[in-house]
Design goal:
Layout: H1 4-18, E1 23-28, H2 39-46, E2 50-57, E3 60-66, H3 77-81, E4 83-88, E5 94-98, E6 108-114, E7 119-123, E8 130-134, H4 150-157, H5 164-169, H6 179-189, H7 202-221, E9 262-266, E10 269-273
Antiparallel strand pairs: 1-6, 2-3, 3-4, 4-8, 5-7, 6-7, 9-10
Helix pairs in contact: 1-7, 6-7
The chain binds a DNA duplex (16 and 16 nucleotides) through α6.
DNA sequence: ATACCGACCTGTCAGC
DNA sequence: TGCTGACAGGTCGGTA
């Protein structure tokens, strides 16, 4: 489901709705698949903590947790009291903020009861999502596409023999770009997905750097892409799917030149491009 | 290093 | 109506 713009939209919604709230108790389902840390560790870490901030690192949602402030001054409290809850939504994961009375959806794997009376739920049918706990300073590696300079961007890919699209999807290089935004960025930059990164010119990299950031910014502004079932923390759909120029448009006319959009499989993923506009 | 493939899961949709 | 196969926003590990 979620790439950088979708996760960013969800994070903004969560920050607005649960930051400052306190997690009173946690229920975790019996499925082990979504858990990267043991259920007992997750539950024990979340319970009693205040959600100080919700932010994003690549496609990961990061909840900064802190122990509630007390009157007593314990030197160790601030150190032991902080932790991070990391949520990766995989393909179909969703974070839902709702009233306790709301029906518990199938594939609900975690429910956190909040002091405000609401609940924060993690729902994920395919269970490719992952929940984990980190002490502090979580870093998934890679650089943020919206922060990287053109120089550093070029350095990431220079000389690699891998197809440029595979490189864009490599989260250890650039974090947050997934299948949709890789295809859309390459279209705007006029580069075919199979081109070797090493064969991309400096000028094309410059264009790609701009395209990636432009596509991500526009997508965030429209609340992400709702292709099948994506909704944000408020249950709202995004609208960037209406702006897709190649993704999911196999056989349809290119919006620029009218040529039929092609689909090929690259690294096991559907890849869409215009054979006329992209070289 | 790199690239391809299956595995991990469930759901949906097109075609017969 | 129901079966089958292809496909889905992601990542990991194995193998050549």
């Amino acid at each position: 489901m979620p790439e950088l713009p979708e996760v960013e939209t969800i994070v903004r919604g969560l920050e607005r709705r649960v930051a400052g709230d306190t997690i009173e108790s946690v229920w975790i389902g019996s499925r082990k698949q979504p858990l990267k840390s043991p259920a007992a560790t997750i539950a024990a870490t979340l319970e009693g903590k205040r959600v100080a901030r919700v932010h994003r690192a690549g496609k990961h949602i990061v909840f900064d947790l802190q122990a509630p402030t007390t009157n007593s001054r314990k030197p160790a409290a601030s150190k032991n009291g902080s932790a991070q809850w990391i949520v990766h939504l995989g393909m179909t994961g969703r974070m839902v903020v709702c009233e306790p009375a709301a029906e518990i959806e199938k594939h609900t794997h975690l429910i956190a009861k909040l002091a405000s009376g609401r609940e924060l739920r993690f729902v994920d049918p395919r269970m490719f999502g992952k929940l984990s706990i980190h002490r502090e300073g979580f870093d998934p590696g890679g650089v943020e596409p919206l922060e990287v300079s053109e120089e550093n961007f070029v350095q990431l890919f220079r000389g690699r023999k891998t197809p440029i699209k595979s490189a864009l999807l490599n989260q250890k290089l650039l974090r947050g770009v997934g299948n949709i935004y890789a295809d859309e960025s390459l279209f705007r930059a006029g580069i075919r997905p199979r081109r070797r990164a090493a064969a991309v010119t400096r000028q094309e990299f410059s264009k790609l750097h701009r395209s990636v950031r432009e596509v991500l910014r526009e997508a965030i502004a429209l609340g992400g892409s709702s292709v099948s079932d994506y909704v944000d923390a408020d249950g709202e759909e995004g609208f960037f799917q209406l702006e897709h120029r190649v993704y999911g448009r196999e056989g349809e006319p290119c919006r620029v030149c009218g040529t039929a959009i092609r689909r090929v499989v690259l690294a096991g993923r559907s890849s869409h491009y215009c054979p006329q506009c992209q070289k």
